[in-house]
Write a structure and sequence with these properties.
The chain is an alpha/beta fold. Helices cover 37% and strands 27% of the residues.
């Protein structure tokens, strides 16, 4: 186990769910600083529930969550956001009637930066996603699916995240747009950002990430380096439908 200072996130026996329905059953997992970590698994495995628990949107029922060595178990969504843990939800959840730029500015509401800081943050998002600059006065609801995902990620970036958590990056998008988003995540990670990515496209996830965790029935059942898992015959058969000779 790496030193705590190497970890931006560490989970020990985390349990969570919805009311009396338990979804997570003792999750043990780490996200290392400066890496892209992928969380993969089938529908209903508990991936989205885990992100909601990590971002404080639902309460935990047991276990512990540490953020950069500090026990943050039970922290609210506002507290986790203040720690730099930012959640880009599945389905984008944009304010459709608002402009792209206003949606982006909503991401900075907790930062209370000065006008110059806001301008620099916007410029950084537009540099990452140039298409958003072209669409900045356009209503978010009129964007394509790929542009909406760019806007959702950009809104998250406006919060100045230390850990960016993205739920279903590629859902419903064309391969070309997925390539563009993957390239943007690579660039953000090269700049030092830690990323936790939930993704059903196993090939994309394992090719992109430094390390990955496989979730099944609310538990982490396997973890390792992305390329190693991608080459594993059991993983290939279970998640890619590839039968090895």
């Amino acid at each position: 186990m790496p030193a705590v200072t190497d970890l931006i996130l560490e989970l020990r026996g985390l349990r969570a769910g919805y009311g009396e329905i338990q979804v997570l059953w003792g999750v043990d997992m780490v996200v290392r600083r400066g890496e892209i970590t992928a969380l993969i698994g089938s529908n209903g495995a508990g991936k989205t529930t885990l992100l909601r628990a990590l971002s404080g949107l639902i309460p935990t029922a047991g276990g512990h969550c540490f953020c950069e060595g500090t026990d943050v178990t039970g922290d609210t969504a506002a507290q986790m956001l203040a720690r730099g843990v930012v959640h880009v939800p599945e389905g984008r959840r944009l304010f459709g009637a608002m402009s792209v730029e206003d949606n982006l500015l909503m991401g900075a509401y907790a930062r209370k930066p000065g006008r110059g800081d806001l301008g620099r943050a916007l410029d950084a998002v537009y540099a990452t996603f140039p298409r958003l600059r072209e669409r900045r006065h356009q209503a978010a609801a009129t964007l394509s699916g790929g542009e909406q995902q760019m806007c959702a990620i950009g809104r998250g970036l406006m919060s100045a995240p230390r850990l960016l958590m993205i739920d279903e990056l590629s859902l419903g998008l064309s391969p070309l747009l997925v390539e563009q988003l993957v390239a943007a995540l690579r660039a953000l990670n090269a700049g030092g950002m830690s990323i936790l990515l939930v993704e059903q496209d196993v090939t994309t996830a394992l090719d992109l990430c430094d390390s990955a965790c496989i979730m099944d029935m609310g538990r982490i059942v396997r973890s390792g380096k992305g390329p190693e898992l991608l080459a594993d015959p059991i993983i290939r058969e279970a998640y890619l439908g590839v039968l090895e000779d």
